[in-house]
Amino acid sequence: MPMSSYYRRLRDRVGSELILIPAVAAVLRDEEGRVLIQRNHHGGWSLPAGAIEPGEAPAQAVAREVYEETGLQVRVGRVLGVVGGAGCRTTYPNGDRVEYVVTLFECTRLAGDLISCNDETAELAWFLPDQFPILAFPYPDEALRGGDHRAYFEWNPAWARPRG
Question: pTM (2 decimals)?
Answer without folding.
Answer: 0.91
